[in-house]
Amino acid sequence: MNKLDLVIFDMDGLLLDTETISLAAWKKSFKNYNVNIDVEKLFFSKILGSNENAIKNIIMEISNNNEKLFYDIIKSQVDESFNIVREDGINIKKGANELIKFLNDNNIKKAIASSSIRKKVDLYLEKTNLKKEFDYIVCGDEAEFPKPYPHLYNNACVYFNADKNNVIILEDSKNGLLSAKNADIEKRFYIPDLLLLSEEDEKELAYKKFNDLIEVKNYIENNFKYN
């Protein structure tokens, strides 16, 4: 039976239902600055799991290298996202609380490796009262390179001095799974959110696929030793 020491969560779309908030905020922001594109197909699908540098490259391409427009849209998107969260809150993904309790009960370390900036991660985790549940959190503005580069996951593994054979990664995006693969972590659990991987990508990148975090909890309980 496999040994398990550490579970590393992505945040956006995996732990919290932030992708719907993010998409709504991007749509409002592009509209605020009269940029008329299909935000979901031509922009949002490309940025899932990426950090600000990757997002900048895409917006600069859309805006014909208008750097001022890039910064205006970024600021607007952050403001719109925070407004939505403050007014409506954030939904925790199905099974997250049950999985966290199970990991706590069995003394399995928990980390978050998110491409989002620290300010956003802290606000969202505090809003959902989840920040205290994690032993370590590393954010996109604290790593040299974003997902799909391996730096965020390597950072978390180094912090715990973890054997990567005893680590599980929980991800919902292609960039996140690529990041874990590039970090040489085999057990990459894929829990889809808004955008599904192609069959080819899923076969290449996902160790296992689950519908929700309840299924993840049940799988760990039955297939790993952790005490």
Automatic annotation (TrEMBL):
The lineage of its organism: Bacteria, Pseudomonadati, Spirochaetota, Spirochaetia, Brachyspirales. InterPro entries: Beta-PGM-like, HAD-like_sf, HAD_2, HAD_sf, PGP-like_dom2. It comes from the Bacteria. It comes from Brachyspira hyodysenteriae ATCC 27164. Keywords: Carbohydrate metabolism, Magnesium, Metal-binding. Belongs to the HAD-like hydrolase superfamily. CbbY/CbbZ/Gph/YieH family. Its cofactor is Mg(2+). This is Haloacid dehalogenase. One of its GO terms (molecular function) is metal ion binding. CDD domains: HAD_BPGM-like (cd07505).
